[in-house]
Task: inverse folding
C-alpha cells in the first residue's frame, strides 16, 4: 500500500510546476504548508472568528456585552476608515438632491428646500458655488467678501457662508449628539433653509446664487440606539 | 489769383485730402493667419490691435444689450449683430472678442468683472487643480485679471489684484505667459484634453493680439509659441491670458467698408466681452 501511494505521489509530482517539484525534492513541503497557513489561512480564520464573536456579542441578552460589541465595531470601522471608503463608493447613499437657489435682497431673501431626513441620519451638504452678482447695470457689488447666506435645517442654523466654491457641511455623529435635542419634532428635519444674512439683505441690489447638492446616507447616528455605521 | 498762389492753394487742398487717408492707411487692427510653431500644423487667426490708437473696454453682455443676466444669453456673433444696430457703432470700425467664463447661467460670469468702475461680479479664488509650481499665477483656476488702470492694460495675478484699483477688469485663466514673457503653463497640461482656444496677448509695445485657434489646441503649445520672440517666429507676448474657449471662442470685426468678419466658432452664449474701437 505504501509503495503504491509512493508511486501515486511520484506520478502526481510529474504534473506539478517545477518550483513545487523542487520544494518536494528538498523536503520543504511541510515548511511551505506552515507558511501558507500563517500568511493566508490564519488571518482569514482570525477575522472570521472575530466577526462571529462580535455578532454574538451584539445579539447578546446582556447590555454590557452589546455595548462592548458596539465599541469594538466602532473602533474597527474608525481604524480602517470603512465609512470613508463606503462614502466614496456611494454604497451607503440613501438619496441625492441637487439644488440651485437664487436670492435677492429686495424680493426674495429666503428659500426652503424640502427634504426627507430621519433623526440621526448622516447628511452631507455640498455647496459647489456660491456667488454674488450685479442684477442691473447700475449695481456694483461689494468686494470685501461678506458672509452672504445662512443655511438652516428646520430652525437650527448650520452655518453662514461667504462667496466661494466647494464648501461642505457634514451632519455626522458628533453633530447629531449635540443637536438631536433641537429636533423633537421630525417635521423640522424636512426643510433646508437658505436665508440672506443681514449684511446681504442690506445690499441695495445684487443676486446671490447658490448651487450644490444634499447627500443623505443610510447611516443613523442616534444616541442610545443600535446606531453608528 | 497769381499762378504761384494757385499752386499753393492746390497743394494745400491736396494735402488736406491726403492726410485722413494717410492716417487711415495704417489700420489700427490687422488680421493674420499664423501657424503655431511646435504644435504640428495648428493654425490660428491672430487679430492685432494697436492699443495706442484704439480704446478697449470690458462689457457685460446682458447689460450691454439692455437685459438682465438670464434674459439675454447672446453669443459673440449675436452681440456683434446687436452692436451693428446701435447709432454709436453702426458707422465706425470695431472689434469684439469673447471674454471670460460662465457660471451655471451662460451669461452670468464667474470671476471678477468690473465695467466702468462698477463691480458686476467678484473675484474668484477657486484653487487650481494643477498648482505644480509656486508662481502666484499657478495657485488659482482663473489665475489672471485683465486690468485697466489709468488707461493702461495689464494682466495681474489674483493675489496682486486690489479691490477698487481697476476701472475695468475681467478675470479669466489660466495665464499662459506671465508679465515679462515667462512661460506659465507646464508640460503636464499636454495630458489634458485640447479645445478651441481664445487667448489675449499683450505686448510690450502697447499691442493686443487676440489668438483664435482653428482647431483644438493645448495651452502648453500656445504658451510656448506666444512667449517666443517674434524673431523666432513666435508671437512675442509680454503676457497672455486664456479666455473662454471651445464653442464660446470667437471674434467679430466690423470694418469701415464691407460686412462683418467673424473668426472662431462663437456659437455659445458668453457673459462678457472685450470691445475695441478706434480713438
Result:
Amino acid at each position: 500500500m505504501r509503495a503504491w501511494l509512493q508511486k501515486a505521489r511520484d506520478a502526481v509530482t510529474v504534473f506539478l510546476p517545477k518550483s513545487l517539484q523542487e520544494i518536494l525534492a528538498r523536503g520543504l513541503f511541510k515548511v511551505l504548508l506552515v507558511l501558507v497557513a500563517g500568511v493566508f489561512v490564519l488571518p482569514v480564520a482570525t477575522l472570521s472568528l472575530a466577526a462571529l464573536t462580535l455578532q454574538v456579542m451584539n445579539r447578546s441578552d446582556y447590555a454590557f456585552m452589546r455595548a462592548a460589541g458596539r465599541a469594538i465595531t466602532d473602533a474597527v470601522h474608525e481604524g480602517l476608515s470603512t465609512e470613508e471608503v463606503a462614502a466614496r463608493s456611494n454604497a451607503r447613499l440613501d438619496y441625492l438632491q441637487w439644488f440651485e437657489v437664487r436670492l435677492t435682497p429686495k424680493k426674495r431673501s429666503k428659500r426652503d428646500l424640502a427634504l426627507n431626513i430621519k433623526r440621526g441620519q448622516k447628511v452631507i451638504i455640498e455647496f459647489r458655488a456660491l456667488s454674488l452678482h450685479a442684477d442691473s447695470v447700475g449695481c456694483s457689488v461689494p468686494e470685501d467678501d461678506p458672509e452672504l447666506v445662512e443655511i438652516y435645517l428646520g430652525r437650527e442654523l448650520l452655518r453662514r457662508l461667504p462667496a466661494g466654491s466647494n464648501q461642505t457641511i457634514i451632519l455626522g455623529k458628533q453633530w447629531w449628539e449635540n443637536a438631536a435635542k433641537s429636533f423633537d419634532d421630525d417635521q423640522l428635519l424636512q426643510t433646508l433653509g437658505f436665508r440672506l444674512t443681514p449684511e446681504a439683505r442690506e445690499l441695495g441690489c445684487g443676486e446671490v446664487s447658490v448651487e450644490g447638492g444634499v447627500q443623505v446616507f443610510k447611516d443613523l447616528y442616534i444616541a442610545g440606539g443600535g446606531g453608528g455605521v | 489769383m497769381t499762378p504761384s498762389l494757385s499752386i499753393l492753394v492746390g497743394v494745400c487742398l491736396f494735402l488736406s485730402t491726403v492726410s485722413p487717408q494717410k492716417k487711415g492707411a495704417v489700420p489700427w487692427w490687422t488680421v493674420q493667419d499664423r501657424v503655431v510653431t511646435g504644435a504640428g500644423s495648428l493654425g490660428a487667426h491672430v487679430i492685432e490691435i494697436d492699443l495706442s490708437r484704439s480704446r478697449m473696454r470690458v462689457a457685460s453682455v446682458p447689460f450691454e444689450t439692455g437685459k438682465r443676466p438670464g434674459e439675454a444669453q447672446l453669443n459673440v456673433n449675436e452681440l456683434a449683430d446687436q452692436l451693428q444696430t446701435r447709432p454709436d457703432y453702426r458707422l465706425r470700425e470695431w472689434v469684439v472678442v469673447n471674454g471670460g467664463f460662465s457660471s451655471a447661467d451662460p451669461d452670468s460670469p464667474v470671476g471678477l468683472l468690473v465695467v466702468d468702475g462698477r463691480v458686476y461680479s467678484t473675484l474668484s479664488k477657486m484653487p487650481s487643480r494643477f498648482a505644480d509650481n509656486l508662481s502666484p499665477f499657478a495657485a488659482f483656476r482663473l489665475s489672471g485679471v485683465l486690468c485697466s488702470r489709468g488707461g493702461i492694460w495689464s494682466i495681474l495675478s489674483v493675489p496682486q489684484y486690489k479691490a477698487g484699483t481697476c476701472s475695468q477688469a475681467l478675470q479669466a485663466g489660466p495665464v499662459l505667459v506671465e508679465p515679462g514673457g515667462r512661460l506659465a503653463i507646464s508640460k503636464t497640461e499636454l495630458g489634458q484634453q485640447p479645445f478651441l482656444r481664445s487667448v489675449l496677448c499683450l505686448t510690450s509695445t502697447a499691442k493686443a493680439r487676440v489668438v483664435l485657434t482653428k482647431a483644438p489646441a493645448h495651452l502648453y503649445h500656445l504658451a510656448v509659441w506666444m512667449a517666443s520672440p517674434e524673431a523666432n517666429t513666435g508671437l512675442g507676448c509680454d503676457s497672455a491670458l486664456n479666455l473662454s474657449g471651445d464653442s464660446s471662442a470667437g471674434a467679430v470685426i466690423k470694418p469701415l467698408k464691407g460686412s462683418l468678419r467673424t473668426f472662431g466658432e462663437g456659437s455659445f452664449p458668453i457673459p462678457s466681452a472685450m470691445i475695441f474701437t478706434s480713438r
About this structure: The radius of gyration of chain B is 20 Å. Chain B touches chain A at residues 60, 63, 68-69, 103-105, 108-110, 117-126, 163-164 (CB under 8 Å). Residues 13-23 of chain B have pLDDT under 50 and may be disordered. Residues 3-25 of chain B form the longest helix (23 residues).
